[in-house]
Amino acid sequence: MKTVLITGCSSGFGLETARYFLDKGWNVIATMRTPREDLLPSSERLRVLPLDVSDATSIRDALAAAGPIDVLVNNAGIGLLGALESQSMDVVRDIFETNTLGTVAMTQAVIPQFRERGEGVVVNVTSTVTLRPLPLLPVYTASKAAVNAFTESLALELEPLGVRVRLVLPGMAPETRFGANATPRSMQGEAPEAYVGLMQQVMAGFQNPGPITRSIDVAEAVWRAATDPAVPMRLPAGEDAKLWAG
Question: Which residues belong to the active site?
Answer without folding.
Answer: 140
